[in-house]
Amino acid sequence: MKSILLVCLGGMSTSLMVQKMEKAAQKDNIAVRIWAVSEAEAHNNFNEADIVLLGPQLKFKYNEYKKILGDKPVEIISIADYGRMQGEKVLKWALAILAGKE
Q: Is 100 helix (H, G, I), strand (E, B) or coil?
């Protein structure tokens, strides 16, 4: 089972994205753990995640997180997909990144 961590400033807007992603995963019978945390809690959750997705508002943290996480994928969710809450698209994108890492 893959683990996808979403991080945003407060953890609120990503919670809705998590719901959309979980719904898409259930529809396609994909076993995945998806959760959202605030930027303040991110460091406490990095070890559990296979991939870390940043809300667009945390774009400025990308280089810092990339340095901390090394080979673990860190990506920024596109502002268009985030704004439209395209959970299925974001889920498939994250899984494709993870598939490329194996």
A: helix
Active site residue ranges: 8
End-to-end distance of the chain based on CA atoms, in angstroms?
13
The alpha carbon torsion through 8, 11, 12, 14 (nearest 10 deg) reads 60
Written as one string, the DSSP assignment of 23-68 is: HHHHHTT--EEEEEEEGGGGGGTGGG-SEEEE-GGGGGGHHHHHHH
Radius of gyration of the chain, Cα coordinates, nearest whole angstrom: 12
- The model carries a pTM of 0.94
Q: Where are the domains of the chain?
A: 2-101
CATH code given to domain 2-101:
3.40.50.2300
Q: What is the pLDDT of residues 41-56, one digit of tens each?
A: 999 999 999 999 999 9
Instruction: State how far the Cα of 32 lies from the Cα of 91, in Å rounded to an integer.
Output: 9
Query: Can you tell me the distance from the alpha carbon of 88 to that of 85, in angstroms, rounded to the nearest whole number?
Result: 9
